[in-house]
Design brief:
The complex is a heterodimer. Chain A is mostly helical. Chain A is 69% helix and 0% strand. In chain A, helix 4 (84-115) crosses helix 12. The radius of gyration of chain A is 24 Å and the shape is globular. In chain B, helix 1 (2-16) runs parallel beside helix 2 and helix 9 (187-211) packs across helix 17 (377-392). In chain B, strand 4 (125-126) and strand 5 (129-130) form a beta hairpin. Chain B folds into two domains: 2-139 and 298-367, Periplasmic binding protein-like II (D-Maltodextrin-Binding Protein, domain 2, 3-Layer(aba) Sandwich); 142-296 and 373-413, Periplasmic binding protein-like II (D-Maltodextrin-Binding Protein, domain 2), CATH 3.40.190. Chain B is α/β, with parallel strands linked by helices. The chains are: A mainly alpha, B alpha/beta. The interface between A and B is large, with 38 and 42 residues.
Chain lengths: 295, 414
């Protein structure tokens, strides 16, 4: 934040007991995340010989990118030894349709529920609200049967379908709560100007949705990218997302463990959502402040 | 050289059976991804693809034993042809769905069935039918020790004939500045140590009383079962401070790096030693737990799917026969760090430790199976919990532990 953004003059700060307490708490919270992250990062640059000695917090005696290279290009998931990159592209292929379908569908539904006179809108919202709290695991088997009947089980389409269905309740509620703050007069005037449902959506609503779109985008990219269970359950041969490849590398019962490769792989898998946060983080805060999620 | 061996054996196999006319796709569902495991998979893949079987790999980790992903594939109508599974319940479920496949005939045809040891046969049999193709054997409780440390402390593990002998040397090891016994105190590791000690101290009959299909509560009160808990307590008191919640492989590394003399754990420890560039018989030694009455055997096995078209079914049967071929099996076991499942494999490539295990397996009266083959999973979890609570709470007496075994048994199995 630059000074021009300060809305009112502030008194020069004095160090008080309270601010010290806040600082201590914040540093503890930061440590809570940063210490494991530190171990993750230094381990990924170490050689296995050094890791075997223990001393988790020491810096690498010899910095090496070998583990990163191995994780990306050579690591095996069963017989397929092409590294994490195979999973990376699968994840991208899953992400794009899941993201588009889930956001488009919930956005239109939210818009209709908030601004148009929909019959049974109240009960419908209530049901959506309930659905937002149903854990996926409970409906997993029925969903498998459903996708089999639809003939899409074991494909990227099935994964995108399930992501869309599962994200729908919460996303619709978010969009609906955002749009309901739009003055009804605006819509009435637009209808008078012979605007149709879709024309109003495209020409008026969409341009106003920037902030909330960023919020939903971040939520969805994170949840779809980090998803393991849906990918492993509904994906077929060769469509397993990056998280499944990661789990194959890391989950070892009686084999040997390469901690440096595991750490590098975990970081590689976490990079895309992290980048999204860094790029869009500022808008994310604005979007929340704009009254969307606080409902 | 290894490749030559495989091609040679594949050529042999080709000669003895009618070659398949057409490449047959088999979906293989398995759980292995670590370097040694992948190398072992490649041995199998090369052998089966030489006979025109096209291996389509699907790898999903499931070390929890719940097999959810496998059942999802079955429910989804896309069950794999060959699958890694050792839970008898799953095999019974598949039979009920009409997807069971008995492999007895395939192994009788090649004569492999006569070369499986008793523990292997028992592990792969469900309700009288052979349902798994065995791949490798592990012993759940072996003593792996650092030979350099043993020499420095002036002790000779091979001279121990009982746990008391072993314990008597602990002071010498401690005095020399080493931890005598490295333990990873996690629930499953203590659970494994418990059943390994049960085999060692109580022998096959009482072992069956605790880990059998129908446990016998009277066995819990025997002096032998009590002594298992007494030894657990002694080990717990000898454990170093870092043992709490330490992974087995980090524990192995304590032994490899010479901080501790030995570890008692499953013999997959060998993989970790090998990965650190150490040789069996040179850098580290392996012995069964001193004074053992029975060793506990784990068998890695894969099942085959029933109700398939004829050509697929024939390919699956060939698959089962190929992977249990003596040469293929020996190569597989060497690469993976396991012990071959057959007693007639060529011994040239087999290391000291696997050789020792093959000798142990010759005596069928002194081997028992890993509990997961026979035991109700709730009961196994209960035993693990009792053992781990006992380990973690020094105030808990052996009587308390036996009493909670009884009460868990009443709740779960009555």
């Amino acid at each position: 934040m630059t000074d021009t953004n300060v809305m009112y003059p502030r008194k020069p700060k004095r160090i008080t007991g309270r601010s010290i307490a806040v600082l201590v708490f914040l540093s503890m919270a930061a440590m809570f995340f940063c210490v494991p992250l530190y171990v993750l990062i230094v381990t990924s640059f170490k050689e296995m010989d050094q890791i075997r000695e223990g001393a988790m917090f020491s810096l690498p005696t010899k910095w090496t990118l070998e583990a990163w290279h191995f994780a990306w290009f050579e690591a095996c998931s069963g017989l397929n030894c092409s590294g994490l990159r195979a999973g990376f592209w699968n994840s991208v292929v899953i992400l794009v349709p899941s993201l588009t379908a889930s956001i488009a569908l919930s956005m239109v539904t939210g818009y209709a529920l908030a601004l148009w006179d929909v019959k049974w809108a109240g009960p419908f919202l209530f049901v959506l609200f309930l659905c937002a709290f149903v854990p996926f695991q409970i409906i997993m088997y029925p969903l498998i049967r459903l996708t089999v009947t639809m003939g899409i089980y074991g494909s990227t389409t099935a994964i995108a379908f399930v992501h869309t269905v599962l994200a729908m309740p919460i996303l619709t509620l978010i969009f609906r709560n955002f749009y309901k703050d739009i003055p009804p007069e605006l819509i009435k005037a637009a209808i008078m100007d012979s605007g149709s449902f879709w024309r109003i959506f495209v020409e008026i609503i969409l341009p106003m949705s920037g902030n909330i779109l960023i919020v939903v985008l971040i939520l969805q990219i994170t949840s779809i990218w980090n998803d393991y269970l849906i990918g492993v359950t509904f994906g077929g041969l060769g469509t397993k997302p990056m998280t499944v490849h990661l789990a194959n590398m890391v989950t070892v019962s009686t084999g040997t463990v390469s901690y440096n490769v595991n750490m590098a792989a975990a970081l590689l898998t976490a990079i895309p959502p992290l980048v999204i946060y860094f790029v869009l983080g500022k808008f994310f805060v604005q979007g929340i402040a704009a009254g969307a999620i606080k409902g | 050289m290894k490749f030559m061996k495989i091609t040679a054996s594949a050529a042999l196999l080709l000669g003895t059976s009618a070659p398949t006319a057409q490449a047959e796709d088999l979906v293989v569902y398995q759980t292995w991804s670590s370097p040694a495991e992948v190398a072992a998979l490649k041995v199998l893949n090369e052998a089966v693809s030489a006979e025109g079987i096209n291996w389509i790999d699907i790898t999903i980790p499931h070390n929890t034993g719940s097999s959810v992903s496998l059942l999802n594939l079955v429910v989804g109508g896309q069950p794999p042809n060959i699958f890694s599974e050792n839970n008898t319940g799953v095999f019974r479920d598949l039979t009920e769905m009409g997807l069971g496949r008995d492999l007895t005939e395939a192994f009788t045809e090649t004569g492999a069935i006569d070369h499986f040891s008793d523990a292997v046969l028992k592990a792969i049999t469900v309700d009288g039918e052979i349902r798994q193709m065995p791949l490798g054997v592990h012993i759940d409780g072996m003593v792996y020790y650092n030979m350099e440390v043993a020499a420095a402390a002036g002790v000779d593990p091979t001279s121990w004939t009982s746990l008391d002998d072993m314990m008597a040397d602990f002071d010498a090891v401690t005095a020399a500045g080493y931890v005598p016994l490295a333990v990873g105190a996690q629930q499953w590791q203590i659970g494994y140590l418990t059943h390994a000690l049960m085999g060692t101290l109580a022998g096959p009959e009482l072992y069956a009383g605790v880990y059998g299909e129908v446990p016998d509560p009277a066995a819990f009160d025997s002096a032998e079962v009590r002594s298992v808990f007494e030894w657990l307590r002694k080990f717990q008191q000898a454990a170093d401070d870092g043992s709490v919640n330490r992974d087995w492989n980090m524990t192995t590394n304590n032994v490899i790096s010479g901080q501790a003399l030995m570890q008692i754990h499953g013999d997959w420890m060998k993989g970790e030693w090998r990965a650190a560039g150490k040789e069996p018989g040179v850098d580290f030694g392996c012995i069964p737990i001193p004074g053992y009455k029975a060793v506990v055997v784990t068998v890695d096995g894969w099942g085959a799917l029933g109700g398939q078209p004829e050509a697929t079914d024939a390919a699956m049967m060939r698959f089962a026969q190929i992977v249990t071929d003596p040469t293929v099996n020996a190569d597989f076991a060497n690469v993976k760090g396991a012990t071959p499942v057959r007693n007639d494999v060529p011994t040239d490539g087999i290391d000291n430790c696997a050789q020792r295990v093959l000798e142990l397996l010759e005596d069928s009266s002194r081997q028992v199976n890993n509990p997961s083959v026979t035991v109700d999973s709730d009961w196994q979890n209960a035993i693990w919990e009792v053992a781990f609570n006992f380990w973690s709470d020094p105030d808990m007496s052996v009587d308390d532990a036996i009493a909670s075994l009884h009460s868990q048994h009443d709740i779960i199995l009555n």
